[in-house]
From TrEMBL:
The protein's name: ABC transporter permease
Domain of life of the organism encoding this protein: Bacteria
Record organism: Paraburkholderia kirstenboschensis
Taxonomic lineage of the native organism: Bacteria, Pseudomonadati, Pseudomonadota, Betaproteobacteria, Burkholderiales
Family classification: Belongs to the ABC-2 integral membrane protein family.
Membrane-crossing residue ranges in chain numbering: 42-63, 75-101, 121-142, 149-175, 181-202, 240-259
Length: 270
């Protein structure tokens, strides 16, 4: 039973605002999603830290030696790359099911549909926070200093968060109509992973005449807007900021178009 008119009405900017004000609802739902993944587990969400640490340690040792990279530089670089990439891939792949997994809530509760998009962002942010902890641990182990310039990562992350929310808005609406979308995006993201400087550095590409691999890859700039300040304690290069801002504008326009075209039909398609 649909009890709220906005469940079938076209969302406006005010609905995004009103949904944000219900932060206790979507934050609780998002945290419950994290807990439910580890239900009946003795360690619970601590497995996020264990799994992430194990992957980064194993991959870092292998690829660090394979690429002949100094571990004090490569391991923090790899840690941030994998953590940020995980956020991007989750917003695209898992985000495409945001409305589908919330079907029961949408049809029975008088909440704006937008809260289920905010809800989807919570687990990604939790995992990202755990990843940052692993990064700071790796920096401390290798005694690498972090200066005040690292605070440039704060506005960078805010921009990164907005962009990924636009990702969720777009794929969540499309995913209601096309249920194969998560599988398609999963395959594309896997390909993109090997074309983005996550486990290999920009210097490696430049030395081999492959600079175009990252120069024309927008995902590189989304990663670098957060990674560069944390690694170098200074503002990211101007071109990184400009491309990330331009991408945000394009993603915002695309999200607005998708909402206007598809939002009214969500409840009926579900």
């Amino acid at each position: 039973m649909i009890t709220y008119n906005s469940a079938s009405a076209r969302p406006s900017l005010m609905e995004f605002v009103s949904a944000a004000k219900l932060w206790r609802v979507w934050l609780h739902m998002g945290l419950q999603d994290v807990k439910s993944r580890f239900r009946s587990s003795a360690l619970g969400p601590a497995w996020i830290l264990i799994n992430l640490g194990a992957v980064i340690g194993a991959v870092g040792l292998i690829y660090g030696r394979l690429f002949h990279q100094p571990m004090n530089e490569f391991l923090p670089f790899l840690t941030l790359g994998l953590v940020i990439w995980g956020f991007i891939s989750s917003s695209l792949v898992e985000g495409s099911m945001a409305f589908v997994v919330a079907e029961g809530y949408i049809k029975q509760f008088p909440f704006p549909k937008i809260i289920y998009l905010y809800r989807a962002m919570v687990p990604y942010t939790v995992v990202f926070s755990v990843g940052l902890f692993v990064f700071f641990v790796s920096m401390a182990l290798y005694r690498r200093p972090i200066g005040w310039g690292a605070l440039w990562a704060v506005p960078g992350f805010m921009l990164f968060l907005i962009i990924n929310f636009f990702h969720v808005v777009i794929v969540a609406h499309i995913g209601v109509r096309f249920r194969d979308l998560p599988h398609l995006l999963g395959s594309l993201i896997q390909i993109a992973f090997y074309l983005t400087p996550v486990i290999f550095t920009v210097t490696m590409l430049k030395d081999r005449g492959l600079a175009f691999v990252y120069m024309f890859n927008p995902l590189y700039y989304l990663i670098e807007i957060v990674r560069y300040p944390l690694l170098n304690s200074e503002a990211p290069p101007a071109e990184v900021s400009y491309v990330a801002l331009s991408y945000c504008v394009v993603a915002g326009v695309a999200a607005t178009y998708v909402v206007k075209k598809m939002s009214q039909r969500i409840v009926y398609v579900l």
